[in-house]
Amino acid sequence: MREDTPLDLLASLGHSSPETEFYSPYPQGYEKGRCKYVVVLGTVMSGLGKGIFSSSLAKILKDKALRVAPIKMEGYLNIDAGTLNPFRHGEVFVLDDGLETDMDLGTYERMLDENLSRHNFVTSGQIFTRILEHERHGHYLGRDVQMIPHVTGEVKYTLRALALETRADLVFVEVGGTVGDYENGYFIEAIRELAYEEGEHSVGVVALTYIVEPQALGEQKSKAAQLGMRQLMQTGLHPHIIACRCAAPVTDKVRQKISMFSNVPLRRVFSMHDLPSIYLVPEMLREAGLDREVLTLLHLHERVNQRAEDAARARWTRFVGQLLAEKEKTVIIGVTGKYASLRDAYASIDKALEHAAAAAQCRLQVQWIDTTEITPRNVAEMLKGCHGIIVPGGFGSRGAEGKIQCIRYARENHVPYLGICLGFQMAVVEYARHVCGLDGANTTEIDPHCQHPVIDILPEQKKIEGLGGNMRLGGKDVILKSGTGISHLYGDATTVRLRFRHRYEVEPRYIETLERHGLVFGGHAPNQPIMQMLELPATVHPYFFATQAHPCLTSRPLAPDPMFLGLVQAALRRAYPQQAFASLVG
Ligand code: GLN
After folding, report:
1. Ligand 1-lining residues (CB < 6 angstroms)
2. How far apart are CA 578 and CA 586, in angstroms?
3. Of 137, 275, 360, 449, which is most buried, counting CB atoms within 10 Å of its CB?
């Protein structure tokens, strides 16, 4: 994206020269004032649903046919989220271009129904890496390299490059953490500078805050929010819009207090109370008029297409209606996993199941199963009541034998099964051991010296040392074999594009044996013998599918992933065997 020679850089430095204090790098071709920015900052505490709020706001502006580009700025020093423990930080989301990001990018992709790229995610680790690279290339013209203006300059450059790259009308900047955190302070300073440089009506600041309602008082209190606003104003930024998170609708009295103490007109202080579903948030924001305030603030009214908005709104309302409609039927899907107690670690699976259940018109209950406790003796008891089973992605050996037991149980007892990534590899191990008679079959990830390494490291992965961004990552095409269940699931498509994140694969020399014993590989990588889909024929099992990919990452509210939808439909048939249901397979 960036021309990195000193001369090119000089040309792009705008007002900068060794004689001036202004340092405002912007990419070649950037037109000031064309793109507007909405910055969302959190105060009081984290965990307010900043990502859901920002993505919902971005969505309702996108609905009006504005071109929007979100960006999440993370204060941590990791280059990407790939090395973060999902148990502490939530799921690692993988973009089509292979970047491993924070789970919020998943929220943006689902809300906006579009693929994002590495330009939509930035960490302090990335910013400082670039700064140090520029320094080594002599880009700073002999000056001492400082947090201000150089690091903040890099942040502004990143935002402007995104604006230029995407030709966005509106860039949505979500700053991770809360105002007052040490590590995001320079992002906030960069925003202040951006607002100054871009000029009036270019940058809108939205502060998300929290209204406490202590049970003992039974009354909403605004002091914490007021202090949060004061802290924000100390950074030199003044909020234009304040959104108040609260369990219940925020009272007028509290809104008035916040308005008065922060100089924000009352009509721009919004209640953002809890709702039964995050998918209701866009409509709540629209009804409250948040979108109109943004348009007015940033002079964007002329770019709106009312007809597009009406159509998008109708589509969304239909989905939300389906999602929230009273359902007669319930299916229980068991999800096995190492981090069984943490929903965030499997956020996309949870969402993909939600999309599928809305489309299949049933209530869905997820039962999280800790496989470290599963043995051949208790497996039936542990899976009792599950109408379908998912073994999701994962790393390492913990709970692996328990997963194999679950898969065996699902296969032998005709329980619908969906294996994802590690769940695909474990299904191969299970089949090799119990159907092909390959005793001691395993993955070399768990047992490097096993007798039958049916899952082994990808050849290209053997040379790699160190961690971070070096797995087989990102969106890749999968060639589907015609006539298979999987091609049928994907509407008789010959290729699908799914997202990957793995180091191991089915060892090619075992493919023939596995197929001879009845396992069908219905999808593989183009030009390589990497198996990416497996299934059992419909004559043998009602629904047994697994994939080396992570189809949950590309499931969208308005377009549920077919493998998930197929699983839920098969689970419905198991739960209510007497009734006829729509089906994607067989
Ligand atoms: N650990 C397995 C591999 O590296 C599976 C990875 C995953 O499930 N994401 O191939």
Report:
1. 393-395, 421-422, 445, 501-504
2. 17
3. 360
Q: Is there a single domain that holds both residue 64 and residue 182? A: yes
Provide the CATH number for the domain around residue 480: 3.40.50.880
pLDDT in tens, the chain (586 residues): 444 443 344 444 444 556 666 778 889 999 998 999 999 999 988 888 899 999 999 999 999 999 999 999 999 999 988 888 887 888 999 999 999 999 999 999 999 999 999 999 999 999 999 999 999 998 888 889 999 999 999 999 999 999 999 999 999 999 999 999 999 999 999 999 999 999 999 999 999 999 999 989 889 999 999 999 999 999 999 999 999 999 999 999 999 999 999 999 999 999 999 999 999 999 999 999 999 999 999 999 999 999 999 999 999 999 999 999 999 999 999 999 766 557 788 999 999 999 999 999 999 999 999 888 899 999 999 999 999 999 999 888 888 999 999 999 999 999 999 999 999 999 999 999 999 999 999 999 999 999 999 999 998 887 777 777 788 899 999 999 999 999 999 999 999 999 999 999 999 999 999 999 999 999 999 988 899 999 999 999 999 999 999 999 999 999 999 999 999 999 999 999 877 666 665 4
Do 235 and 122 share a structural domain? yes
What is the Cβ-side half-sphere exposure of residue 36, based on CA atoms within 13 angstroms? 22
Do 384 and 291 fall within a single domain? no
Provide φ and ψ at 242, rounded to 5°.
-120, 130
- 114 and 85 in one domain? yes
Q: Best mutation site among 92, 395, 429, 454 for ligand 1, i.e. most ligand atoms within 8 A of its Cβ? A: 395
Tell which one of 83, 420, 422 to mutate to probe ligand 1, the residue whose CB is within 8 A of the most ligand atoms. Answer: 422
**Which of 318, 348, 380 is the C-terminal boundary of a domain?**
318
User: What separation in Å is there between the alpha carbon of 472 and the centre of ligand 1?
Assistant: 10
Q: How many CA atoms lie within 13 A of 523 on its CB side?
A: 29
Domain of 460, in residue numbers: 326-575
Spatial CB neighbours of 364, under 8 Å, sequence gap ≥ 6: 330, 331, 332, 333, 353, 354, 356, 357, 568
The CATH number of the domain holding residue 145 is: 3.40.50.300
Cα torsion for 374, 380, 385, 387, to the nearest 10°?
Answer: 90
Pair 304, 334 in one domain = no
Considering the entire predicted model, what is its pTM?
Answer: 0.93
Total domains in the chain come to 2
